Amino acid sequence: MAGSWLGHVRALVGRVGNSWQVTDTYAYDSWGNLIAHTGTTQQPFTWNGAYGYEYIPATGLYHVGAREYDPRTARWLQRDPIDAASGDPNLYRYCGNDPLSYQDQDGMSSQKRRWGRKDCENLARKIRNLIRSLEKRISKYNPAEDAKGGHPYTDRKTGQTCYTKPYEHYRKISEELNALQRRLQAWYDHCDDPENNDIRPDISKANELLQWDQPIPYPGYTGWIPPALGGGFYEPGLIDLTPIWGVGAAGIHLAAGSGGATVTTTTAASAASATSWGERIAAAIGAAARMLQDALKTLNPAR
């Protein structure tokens, strides 16, 4: 009998003459429906056979501990006997509608599937590679230079000289942190067993990297990007707020009676000379803020 890491029987091996040969093969969809079969051997343990799922040909159902499961509807025929204690509010749903990640060995509660040794080795290797890459990227990270872009590097695939785009370094760090978080969670879910201690990646180093919380590299931007462990990085729209402070320091006069006109004229000139949409938007925001301040002072001179 040969199976898959999911616990399904994929083939039966029997003695034919003086040699061992494959006598039967099986293929299933994710919900347990048999989609291909060769051979004539009658045996009930096929899909999830490693977990005791017994197929009943007369009904097309699987007997699984406390209940019967129908692969055609992907539902249990009976409600969960332990009710809400199963952790699923839907008492008829099979494995939370995620049969690739979960298994139910007794018909009462589902658990995360454990991966085989080879899959866990591949996952550990990917985590180690991400840790090395992130350590290198973070050690070289310079927010001011990253905001400018234009730094030369050699493309590994083509060998050509390319130039970084603004914020590219930050984006790559964010992407790798998100990938590290996903793979670390997969390790906890599927591979974190004593028998895998010899291939276990450096979990403490991975968690340390996930605490990286540098602000986004853009002059004047006051927002803060939360660490990946606290909900994931994101990439908001970027607006350079520096012109607001520049206008305020150089050309805004809030003298009573003339402030409004001065604000409008000065900011309009600043907006007209702006070289980017970010600067134009920033100048417009600055104008609105200062006009509001001027109006408040006019209405309440004592302030």
Overview of the molecule:
- The structure is a single chain.
- The protein has 303 residues and is α+β, with helices and mostly antiparallel strands.
- It has helices spanning 117-139, 143-148, 168-190, 203-209, 242-250, 259-273, 277-299, and strands spanning 2-3, 9-16, 19-28, 34-38, 54-56, 61-64, 67-70, 75-76, 102-103, 111-112, 152-154, 161-163.
- It folds into three domains: 2-112, no CATH class; 117-230; 242-299.
- It has seven helices and twelve strands.
- The longest helix is centred in the middle third of the chain and has 23 residues, at 117-139.
Walk me through the topology:
Layout: E1 2-3, E2 9-16, E3 19-28, E4 34-38, E5 54-56, E6 61-64, E7 67-70, E8 75-76, E9 102-103, E10 111-112, H1 117-139, H2 143-148, E11 152-154, E12 161-163, H3 168-190, H4 203-209, H5 242-250, H6 259-273, H7 277-299
Antiparallel strand pairs: 1-2, 2-3, 3-4, 5-6, 6-7, 7-8, 9-10, 11-12
